[in-house]
Specification:
heterodimer; A: 219 residues; B: mainly alpha; 1% strand
Chain lengths: 219, 195
């Protein structure tokens, strides 16, 4: 009787909850996380989270800036600069647009300012054309319409194309590159450029008209 | 009216390519392109231009170009954070960098200025200037050179002390050179003895 009473008064053994493993910042796989979560982490000071965002968008930003400047060294510097600006302004990012739109806007604005300051428009530093162009349906179709006047080498065509694009105003160039090269929609371009879709359409229309005049021999 | 339709068709064609135009409008647009040769030619040229521009996608950096991008980003970020702010830069621009070379130069300039001042002080040109200035303002010079009883009286009178020098009662009184000499000429004394 007394033993039963003593057994009852004994404290019941608690369920042992194993401590949660402490996931270090280094080991956490952040590459699968959404942009919003990564931005929140970066705003708390996790630089690794921002690194993932840099890794995710560096090539797309580089491509846009490169096509706007036709100079791969300038493009590299401007994209680095845009990411630095984004990192320093991260606390002011409220999430009203996606991180991609926001950083894209920073990069495009900085590129437009850079191009307005740059006086030498003809200083090209072009990337090489990859071999996959030979199988590109657009290229194959263009080459099927070749006339004697258009029998230009690929390098010459690339230079002519870049020369023509560099003759556009900075805003028109940005819209053409984002739409016709990068394949962005009017709505996305409007968000990046902070203007209406009508303005984007209008800029695209006039930029194409100008390019048709400049590249008439190749059309 | 036809021009208006052509303009609208040109504007809508992009949206139709992106699949953003509803079917009734899209079929109307296709019909317009079939009927209007001008628009058809323009669309063909625009289509070729887009194909040409799309070729720019094949301009690619060499493989491995982005391998060090993040590390380079961190280096740039570190450099950027260590860069002084514009306030610091302004403060820095006002600060005089005193290196040993500057110290010697500064000491040399001070010595030269001192020597020049001494030469200026003892040069005859300087004394001539002082004489000229005495001639220009005789009252002030006499008062400073010989503190006579008259000058003491002037300074003790408050009403006269605040008056401009030109308004002073003695201002128009002629000044003589002999008044500034404290001793009486010896020739007069000897003459008085003889008499």
């Amino acid at each position: 009787m007394l033993r039963q009473l003593a057994d009852r008064l004994k404290p019941a053994p608690r369920d042992i909850v194993p401590p949660k493993p402490v996931v270090s910042e280094q080991s956490a796989d952040l590459t699968h996380e959404e942009d919003e979560a990564l931005v929140a982490r970066a705003q708390r000071g996790e630089t690794k989270a921002f690194d993932v965002l840099v890794e995710r968008y560096k090539q797309r930003l580089y491509a846009t800036v490169y096509h706007m400047t036709s100079n791969h060294e300038d493009a590299n510097d401007l994209v680095q600069d845009a990411f630095i600006k984004a990192y320093k302004s991260l606390r002011s990012f409220k999430g009203q647009s996606s991180f991609y739109t926001w950083v894209y806007r920073i990069a495009v604005n900085r590129t437009i300012n850079f191009l307005k300051r740059r006086k030498d428009r003809g200083h090209f530093s072009l990337n090489d054309i990859d071999a996959s162009i030979e199988t590109d349906p657009d290229y194959v179709e263009l080459m099927s319409h070749v006339t004697p006047r258009r029998e230009a080498g690929l390098t010459e065509l690339q230079e002519k194309l870049n020369e023509a694009v560099q003759k556009l105003s900075e805003e028109h160039r940005a819209v053409v590159i984002m739409h016709d090269v990068q394949g962005m929609t009017h709505a996305d371009i409007a968000k990046v450029m902070h203007c209406s879709e009508g303005t984007v359409r209008s800029r695209l229309f006039y930029a194409r008209q100008q390019l048709q005049g400049l590249l008439g021999d190749y059309l | 009216m036809k021009n208006m339709d052509c303009k609208k068709a040109q504007q809508l064609y992009d949206d139709m390519t992106d699949g953003r135009v509803a079917e009734p409008v899209a079929s109307e647009l296709r019909r317009h392109l079939d009927e209007c040769t001008d628009c058809r030619v323009l669309r063909q040229r625009a289509g070729r231009l887009q194909q040409l521009l799309a070729l720019k996608r094949h301009e690619q950096p060499p493989p491995g170009y982005f391998n060090n991008f993040t590390a380079e980003f961190h280096r740039c970020l570190l450099r950027d954070t260590q860069r002084p702010t514009w306030m610091q830069r302004i403060a820095e621009s006002f600060r005089v960098e005193v290196t040993p070379v500057w110290r010697y130069a500064l000491a040399g300039v001070c010595g030269a200025a001192l020597a020049f001042g001494l030469v200026w002080k003892i040069s005859p040109h300087n004394t001539a200037t002082v004489a000229a200035s005495e001639h220009a303002a005789p009252v002030k010079t006499v008062a400073a050179a010989t503190p006579s009883d008259e000058s003491v009286v002037v300074s003790r009178t408050p009403a006269l002390a605040v008056m401009p020098a030109a308004w002073h009662p003695d201002a128009n009184r002629p000044q003589y050179v002999l008044e500034r000499i404290a001793i009486t000429p010896a020739s007069y004394e000897t003459a008085s003895v003889r008499f």
